[in-house]
Design brief:
It is a single chain. This protein has 19 helices and no strands. The chain is mainly α. Helix 5 runs antiparallel to helix 7 and helix 8 runs antiparallel to helix 11. The protein is globular.
Length: 417
């Protein structure tokens, strides 16, 4: 298996990871009337999905340092697919809750394992993170669109079964392809020379603390926005009796357009550094989340599109910071800590949304709170190093990479992931 083929499997895994995580919030709109329950009550069944997604991150990272990573990605595909098929066969809350917990556990494999593998392939960091991120965001879009259509015209069970079968098939294919050449499943010595950081401890701790703040509050913003978007559009764009397929397509359109926001951000990270990009995105995000508290009709769709675009655009920045400021020996642990914080706080999004819906507080309070969270991240971002210092580091990195055994004109060196 070539490096490009391995990267294609990793990118497809990112697509499926986010796809599986967003099937349930849309399908819940169809499960609720089918089971004679309220949307808030059904949504609570998804709590184990996001809790296990957070708890599984650290052990997945531990296994990723000791087992062939592409084999673990194959386990991810097969485990997520089998769990999704199980959910499609569930006839009651207990079976569904078990299936969702299993899905979350297998879905946790991707980020610590997949990002580590992309990192060691040795591509341009900003661009590689952006492209990989687009696949994940398109998974969100695909889940909203396909789940809405399949649940509307077939059944909610079909919305879980079809992607489950596809995922199992891809996992089996990866096992067969990876078996032919195991040595390409790990990085070569050349790729490990990509980036050498020389920042002092004070700078590294400062950057890491900013990353932790962004993970905590950004995880809540990302999860609450993506999980509640179908319901938000059902209320604000149309009405409570909105057609499920239309709601799914509308949410999917938002995710699909926003998915590509990471591409220009990836280029900007490689050119001017993280600080100006990070602060600009968060300033706009804070304003748009406040505007969503009062938005209705087509304005709700337009503002949601802009807000989600900025939220998605900021996703690769913290991982890019880890790759450019932290010593190579602590990066894997830093990524694990980042995702534990992000996914841990994000796992509370489902019960919190359900509580707001049940008590009638709704989206006004939700988006006001999320705007405050974005403002806190903006304040933390002010402590990031200035871009000039990064530019000197970037030039040093390029010089070191050009002196290594690389093809000429191969672009920026750096950590990809």
């Amino acid at each position: 298996m070539s490096r490009n083929e391995a990267l294609q499997f990793i990118n497809v895994a990112h697509f499926f990871d986010h796809f599986f995580l967003l099937i349930f919030p849309t399908a819940a709109l169809a499960i609720a009337p089918a089971w004679g329950m309220s949307f808030a009550d059904v949504l609570l069944f998804g709590t184990p999905l996001y809790v296990m997604f957070a708890l599984g991150t650290l052990p997945a990272g531990w296994f990723g340092d000791r087992i062939d990573r592409l084999t673990l990605i194959a386990v991810f595909f097969i485990g997520c697919g089998a769990s999704s098929i199980w959910i499609s066969l569930a006839t009651g809350p207990k079976a569904m809750t078990f299936g969702l917990a299993s899905l979350g556990l297998f879905a946790a494999i991707y980020h610590p394992v997949g990002l580590a593998h992309v990192t060691q392939i040795g591509l341009r960091s900003g661009r590689a993170l952006a492209v990989n991120g687009v696949f994940g965001n398109m998974g969100l879009a695909g889940a909203a669109i396909m789940t809405g259509i399949l649940a509307q015209f077939f059944s909610w069970q079909t919305a879980f079964a079809l992607p489950g079968v596809a995922s199992v098939a891809i996992g089996c294919l990866l096992i067969l392809r990876n078996r032919k050449n195991r040595r390409l499943a790990v990085s070569s010595p050349v790729n490990n020379k990509c980036v050498v950081t020389k920042h002092n401890r004070r700078v590294q701790w400062s950057v890491f603390l900013v990353i932790c703040v962004a993970a905590l509050f950004g995880g809540m913003v990302f999860n609450m926005v993506t999980i509640s978007l179908p319901k938000f559009l059902a209320e604000r764009l149309v009405n409570e009796n909105a057609d499920l397929a239309w709601v799914g397509v509308s949410a999917g359109l938002v995710f699909a357009v926003a998915a590509f926001a990471q591409l220009p951000v990836g280029e900007l990270l490689d050119r001017i550094g993280a600080r100006p990009v990070f602060l600009s995105l968060l300033a706009g995000e804070t304003f748009l989340l406040l505007a969503l508290t009062q938005a209705t009709g087509w304005a709700a769709l337009a503002l949601a599109l802009l807000a989600v675009t900025l939220i998605f655009a900021a996703i690769p920045i913290t991982t890019w910071l880890i790759g450019h400021y932290l010593d190579a020996g602590v990066r894997s642990r830093a990524v694990s800590v980042e995702y534990v914080l992000s996914l841990g706080v994000g796992s509370s999004a489902v019960p919190l949304i359900a509580f707001l819906q049940r008590t009638g507080l709704g989206f006004d309070l939700q988006f006001a709170g999320l705007a405050m969270s974005s403002a806190i991240i903006f304040a933390a971002g002010l402590f990031l190093p200035k871009s000039k210092r990064l530019q000197r580091q970037h030039e040093t990195t390029r010089t070191q990479a050009d002196q290594g055994p690389r093809r000429p004109h191969s672009g920026h060196s750096g950590r990809a992931g």
